[in-house]
Amino acid sequence: MIKTKKKTKKLHSANKIQEILMITPMTIGFLLFSVYPIIWVLRWSFFKYNGYSEPIFVGLGNFIRVFTRDPAYWDSLKNTFLIAGMKMVFEIPLALVLAVFLNNKIKGSSFFRVVFFLPSVFSIAVVGLIFSILFGAYNGIVNAILKNMGLITQNISWFSDKGHAMFVIILVSLWTTFGLNMIYFLMGLQNISKSLYECAAIDGANEMQQFFYITLPLVAPILQLVLMLSVLGTMKMTDLILVLTNGAPGGSTEVVMTYIFKYFFSYGESAAMEVQFGYASSMAVVTAVILGIVTLIYLKVSKKMQEVEE
């Protein structure tokens, strides 16, 4: 018995060592690439610092500047929420409807699944470059098609007007992500028992009634996940804007992450802008707090909705 207990203890200790060794690389990566950058940003948000000169402690000066002397930051935040809102209005219903159709085993459904999902695989930078050519003012294919259809008489300068530019941004962003959301919905739909629909059909429920009283309630958890991922993904949108418009015209299509990015690094039209690590860090902190508040509100609302449904 004593020998058996000793062997068991040795086995447990060996298992613990193995577990520690297995999680150590991931823990080190998490500390280096997540925790350390957060601490770095928090620290420099209280300094005036450009990366090479002597840092100057300014206390809450950077945060005061964000809230009182930088309307461009809040305009970029409005653009971010505008894009997120439009994507939720159009992208989520589109992804859900397509998932419902493809889940019905229509002819060629596998082909359409691949076609709709492919944009999610492409590089966002490449997609932005392609669409910037398609929507070119003088030799763009979109203008040529609209002219041939008789919808316009002269070329539209898509990126010289904020309204047109935001339309293109929302369209491209929707095109690149709706396929992935469709796959999420498909996964949820395939877990719904067919017997529920058969019983509903026997009781006289039509397809619309089956959709609203069976499909929607049962895919609600997937819908909550997709909504949250959509908001978070839009808040982190950077490369698409930089390649497609770079904030043009006149910075009116900047989103919050590109605006912060341009204070960290000189880029494109902002090459003359002085690098300000301290101020960029303070904007990053404010953005993180706002995103955290939005997330908490969403979680509380979704929790209350679940309680009402129960």
Task: Give the SSE layout.
Layout: H1 2-44, E1 47-48, E2 56-57, H2 61-68, H3 71-103, H4 109-117, H5 124-134, H6 141-148, H7 162-190, H8 194-202, H9 207-218, H10 220-235, H11 239-244, H12 256-264, H13 277-309
Helix pairs in contact: 1-13, 2-13, 3-7, 3-10, 3-12, 4-7, 10-13, 12-13
- What integer value in Å does the Rg equal? 25 Å
Number of strands: 2
Helix content: over 70%
The parts where pLDDT drops under 50 for at least 5 residues are none
By DSSP (H or I, 4+ residues per run), the number of helices equals: 13
Q: What is the level 1 CATH name of the largest domain?
A: Mainly Alpha
Per CATH, the superfamily of the largest domain is: MetI-like
Sheet with the most strands: spatial strand order = 1-2
How many separate domains?
Answer: 2
N-to-C SSE string, H for helix and E for strand:
HEEHHHHHHHHHHHH
Instruction: Give the rounded overall mean pLDDT.
Output: 85
3D shape:
globular
Query: Biggest sheet, open or closed, and with what strands and sense?
Result: 2 strands, antiparallel
* Beta-strand fraction estimate: under 5%
| Class inferred from helices and paired strands | mainly alpha
CATH architecture of the largest domain: Orthogonal Bundle
End-to-end CA span: 53 Å
Would you tell me which CATH topology of the largest domain applies? MetI-like fold
